[in-house]
Amino acid sequence: MTKKSSSPQVQERSFEHKNINDCQFCKRGSNCIKNILERALDIIGSLLLIIIFLPLFFIIAVLIKMDSRGPVFFLQKRCGENGIEFNMYKFRTMVKEAEFLKKNLKNEIDGPMFKMKNDPRVTRGGRFLRNWNLDELPQCFNVLKGEMSLVGPRPLSDEEMDENSLWKKTRISVKPGLTGLWQIKGKGSGKFSDWIKYDIEYVEKKSLFMNIKILFLTVVTFFMNKDS
To answer: C-alpha angle with apex 159: 153 to 164, nearest 5 degrees?
Structure first.
């Protein structure tokens, strides 16, 4: 007996299914390469920053201990990629009793983050570190560990993101970063709506080229602000 050949419809469905599988495989492969390159940039970048600023780490540590009582480093629980919590490292810039004193102070910015232009809890040395963003340097170790990236939405606690569920869901779909779109475009405005807008824009347009561009613009913005 001779076998019946497959109908044209069956062959067409089989061909379409194969094309879909091929497209999915290519997409997964492309995403895998992109993730590897982004992670390589994070490792190389964070290592370079640690090596370059390592002598400064020791100087800052001594100045903090001389300036006020308390530990050198300040650890904060932050929400990372997929909502996984981690300890974010910072140089301590406030007095030891900062959290206790916070309840008597008034927030001066829009949104869930607490900010004051002249926060009385900030130490003299801490004000200098904040002005030059040196208090953020220890986060290079968070990047090296894979908890953060060089570029991404700034890390926040879970409670600080409860005000907007869409914003929260979007921003935790990627790793938090040392810098991001909000730092180079919207930080000066102080508007919470701008923060949400730039975080979502970054996640939707995220690419290796965009990350490199943001890193470059962060350096340019930093020195322009210091010169002005």
So the answer is: 65
